[in-house]
Structure formats: C-alpha cells, structure tokens
Amino acid sequence: MGEVKEAVRSRYASVARQLAVLQPSADAGCCQLDGPDCGCSGAYSPDELNEIGLTESVSLGCGNPTMLAELAAGQVVLDLGSGAGLDVLLSARRVAPGGHAYGLDMTDEMLQLANANKSKAGVVNATFVKGSIDSIPLPDSSIDVVISNCVINLAEDKGAVIGEAFRVLRPGGLFAVADMVELDPLAPELKRRLDSWAGCISGTIPIDEYRAALLSAGFADPDFQVHSTQSIPGVDGKVGSAYIRARKPVGI
Q1: pLDDT: which is higher, 63 or 80
Q2: Helix, strand or coil for residue 245?
Q3: Which of 12, 76, 86, 97 has the lowest tally of Cβ within 10 angstroms?
Q4: Helix 86-95 and helix 108-121: axis angle, to 10°?
C-alpha cells in the first residue's frame, strides 16, 4: 500500500473509531471528524435521516450525492468510499423495492461501523464490500448509478477510479458524485503533505483536469456545479465542493 493510501486508510480508521463512540451526537466536519464545514451542512433533510436513525455528522462528505443521482426503484447503486454508510442506506431506501445499494470501502473499521448502522436502520437491500475504489471488485456493466461523497479526491490515480466507475456502469448509467476540486492553485508544499491529502485538500485537481479524466474514460457531457469554496489559512490556493455528473453513453 502506497504512502498516500495508507495515510487515508489510517485517518479514516481513526475517524471510524471516534464515530462509533460519539454518534449520534458527533459534530463532524467535511472529510474529517475535526475538519471545517465545506458545504455539506444541511445537505440532508431531517426526514430522510430519521428514516435510518443517523445524523448528518457521519457523512464526512461535501454534499449529498443521493440527491444528485435521482434514484428510482429497482436500480443498483454503488457508493465509492462508503464510510459509515449514510449514502448507501439512503440509496437503499430509494431504490426499494427491487433495487440494491453497494458500499465499497478499504477500511475495516468503517465497514464494521457501516454494517452496524445498517443493522440499526433495518435496511436489508444494502451490502458493504471491502476493496479499493481504483480496482472495484464488481462485474462490468452491473451498476445503474455510481455515487461518491468527497472521496475521489483522496485517490492518487483519479483516472483509474473514474475508469473503474465507467467499467462497472451499465450503458446509459449515471456517475453522480460530490467531490472537492482545486479552484486556485495550491502551494506546492501543501500538495506534498500527507495529512492534508487525507483531509481532502492536497489531492484535489482542477475542474478542467477532472473533466478531461471523465472524457478520457468515455463519459459524455460532464457537468460541474461548485456550491461552496474554501481557502486555506496562511497558504496560497482555494478549493471548492462540487457536484459532478456524467453519463456512460448508451451502446457502449
């Protein structure tokens, strides 16, 4: 496991242990338990959170990709980097009856927490799978919608992640994620910091680079909507929370 991936795994293993103790009262920030709010606060309605007995604090994300994805009954959904399982459990409710939601995460502690939250919520059409988002352990053309919440920026090889998402989507399938993007160039010293990478800052890439990766993988009509921005005190550069949508063309 590379340095970046290990830094991410270690951080979110620690976050999972904290959440297991603190929830449902934890006050979590974007991408990290003690981090800043980068646009995700209030993204989830109280009614949908009450349905599964969780609070927004377990999201650790930068938006609500389940809102972006327009899910429908009977669909199969995959959440890349599913963490404590909030978006998977919400998706499972929306695709019932007949649909299924998968959550993929590489961190044992997060998978354990997600399965505990699944049992507590009484959701039966959800499955949490261990694996890496750059090598998804699911068959080709098996998914209707791929979602993710502030996770793809954590990957070293974002092209591999996006290529894997394209592979597992069925023709006509939707890529609908919330992610952090680089809006103004970050200072080189910040880009090298592993703690900042694991905190969803250093691994961000510009929108043009993100769009190019989507087009290179085969996606059509990528769309970006930045809904919140964040500067880093004392350091050059700016990042933002973005909703990103693209579709796998029919016939591929």
Answers
A1: 80
A2: strand
A3: 97
A4: 40
Burial of 159: CB neighbours in 10 Å, binned 0-12, 13-18, 19+: middle
Residue partners of 69: CB distance under 8 A and separation at least 6: 77, 91, 145, 147, 174, 176
Cβ-contact 69, 174 below 8 angstroms: yes
Nearest-angstrom CA–CA distance, 189 and 179: 22
Q: Inform me whether the pLDDT recorded for 172 exceeds 90.
A: yes
Terminal C-alpha separation, the chain: 33
Cβ 175 vs Cβ 246: under 8 Å = yes
pLDDT at 167 over 80: yes
DSSP class per residue in 179-234: EEEEEEPPPHHHHT-HHHHHTTSTT--BHHHHHHHHHHHT-EEEEEEEEEEEE-TT
Distance CA 176, CA 167 (A): 15
Cβ–Cβ under 8 Å, residues 225 and 242: yes
- Work out whether the CA dihedral 115, 80, 193, 22 comes out positive or negative: negative
